[in-house]
Amino acid sequence: MGPTDRVLLRVERLRAGYGRVQVLWDVDLHVDRGEIVCLVGANGAGKTTLLRAITGVIPPRGAVAFEGSRIDARGTAAIARLGIAHVPEGRQLFPGMTVREHLELGAAFVPGAWDHRGETLERVYTLFPRLRERERQAAGTMSGGEQQMLAVARSLMARPKMLLVDEPSLGLAPVLVQAVFAALREINRQGVTILLVEQNVRQTLLMAQRGYVLENGRIVLEGPGPALLANDHVKAAYLGL
Amino acid sequence: MTGRALVRGGLLLAVLAAVVVLPLWVNRTQPYYLQLSINVLIFATLALSWDILARTGQLSLAHAAFYGLGAYTSVLLTTRAGLPIVAGMAAGAVVAVVAAVLLGVLTLRLRGIYFAIATLAFSETLRVITNQVRFTGAATGLVAPPLLGGHRPSQYLVILTILLALTLVSWWVNRSRWHFAFTAIRANEEVAAVMGVDVVRFKVLAFAISALFAGITGAFYAHVFLFISPLEAYSLAVSVGALVAPIFGGLYTTAGPLVGAVVLRAGEEVLRSTVQRGYPIIYGFLLAAVILYMPGGLAGVWASLAARIPRPARRGARGEPAGS
Fold first, then answer.
1. What is the DSSP letter of B320?
2. A33/chain B closest Cα distance in angstroms
3. pTM for the whole thing?
4. How many domains does the structure of chain B reveal?
5. Is residue B145 included in any domain, yes or no?
6. Where are the alpha helices (DSSP H) in chain A?
7. What phi and psi, each to the nearest 5 degrees, are found at residue A62?
8. What is the pLDDT, as a whole number, of residue B312?
9. Which residue of A76, A81, A156, A166 is the best one to mutate when testing the B interface, meaning the one whose CB has the most B CBs within 10 A?
10. A74: alpha, beta or left, given left = phi > 0 and alpha = psi -120 to 50?
11. How confident is the model at residue B164 (pLDDT cuts 50, 70, 90)?
């Protein structure tokens, strides 16, 4: 296999920000097919901004390539249809819409996904049995953990090749964080490549094959998960050891 | 087909038969009611077409602009260029759509009150310009040729057909995948885009559909009332009426704006004839009460009543979007 076959997502010298405030400075990273890669860092380091720049929610400068083709000049919807699903920070469910409607929406605008929605729905319900029970319930009336699962499930309905997940543990009790992480591992096992953004550094690095540490908009460290966990800087800054 | 669906279908047919036959039958003895029915249907078309745009989160105050553009385009083309009225009405709709697409693209990034103000400015600008230009009759207005020789029953069937077409479009929008796109855009455009929804396309499309029906209705109005002026055709009352009826009846639904428009216009008429002085005050109070105490409008009240009546569990077909 050549390098373009192995690498699914490649980000080179990525700069992005809001108005005059630059948040990201020459970020380089790549995610190989089948990997779980995590991006850890403190609040305000630019993790969310990086995901938003990759999916074009904010305009990126530099190069973003997916399956060997540049996507940095494309619109968000077009990027989503290429097979990158973005689970945004804070879940961002639609009040008043039922669980089932959220899932159908997830499949509605991605070519191919709509025709296979029945099959995907079964897969998603097997992964998250709670959602099947709550099919007709309004999303806003569910617990935080269930909402996070729905946010992930909604993205899976697009049958993506890659999932970008932004802080799924936000506001969840530890037992629910475990459940969400277990689901992500299972999704990855089924063949979906994952780029995971987290503040929950320890658990994330334990799960990921590789990790990047982002500080003040720059990648300061990268390497296999266990190696980063053993790193003195990571220990001191993020693990309180 | 289930028994429920049969009952619903039967009811729908009965209502349809009633709206076709009743005004025409009453017209033999009391033509006033046919005229009132035409007014109600014009109002209902404006309300429902406004609501389709609102489903994408765009709360417009420019509905009068499309109504007025439709009216003026049709009258100018029929009187100055000698076009047949049907062609004039079609041209009115086309001009309204073109204007809506332009306005839609210009206001893409505006939200909430900023969007509303921008659309209001657009509408008022058209009114002021029309008021000044001699070609459009300036403040004096224009006389319009009558549609179908002024035959009221035929005119009634024309506006009824327009409204039925719009009702089908609205029903389809809320039944198809568009419903997801519209709802997602209304809730959060960024998240909608992340789900693969082409936000620009759907927002502009909603604008175009909305303006198409407002434009053709404006043209219809001109050729029924036989006179248009900037103050009437581009009236702020048209824009406000178009948004009050859906709020009153139930936003983002097909039945809500229709029922809202019928109840409001008929109620206004009843008040006008029973309360000699100051009927707008009572009308205003009733409106305020509904908006304050019935947040879902009449459709919301209907839904909560229906929810109290026990009935067998819903058997939605798999893969079919739920809701109305």
1. P
2. 21
3. 0.90
4. 1
5. yes
6. 3-6, 47-54, 76-82, 99-108, 117-127, 129-133, 144-156, 174-189, 201-207, 225-230, 232-238
7. 105, -165
8. 53
9. A76
10. beta
11. very high
CB B88 within 8 A of CB B145: no
Percent of chain B residues past pLDDT 70, beyond the cut: 95
Strands (E), B23-151: 142-143
Of B196, B314, B321, the CB nearest to A77: B196
Closest alpha carbon to A87 in A152, A36, A40, A139: A152
> Is B176 an interface residue toward A (CB < 8 Å)?
no
- pLDDT by residue (tens digit) across A211-228? 999 999 999 999 999 999
**Domain presence at residue B100:** yes
How far is residue A107's CA from residue A126's CA, in Å, rounded to a whole number?
A: 17
Specify if B269 maps to a domain.
no
- At A212 the three-state DSSP class reads strand
pLDDT tier, B27 (very low <50, low <70, confident <90, very high otherwise): confident
Predicted confidence (pLDDT) at residue A1 exceeds the cutoff of 70: no
B109 interfacial to chain A (CB closer than 8 Å): no
Tokens of B63: 């509905």
The band of A4, judged by pLDDT with boundaries at 50, 70 and 90, is low
| pLDDT attached to residue A53 | 97
- What residue numbers bound the domain in which B156 lies? 16-235
Closest residue in chain B to residue A90, using alpha carbons only: B191
Provide the 3-class DSSP secondary structure of residue A176: helix
In a domain, B33, yes or no: yes
Adjacency order of strands within the sheet including A84-87: A84-87, A162-166, A193-198, A36-40, A210-215, A218-224
Contact A109 B196 (CB under 8 A): yes
Cβ distance A180 to A147 under 8 Å?
A: no
Residue pair B217/B159 in contact (Cβ under 8 Å)? The answer is yes
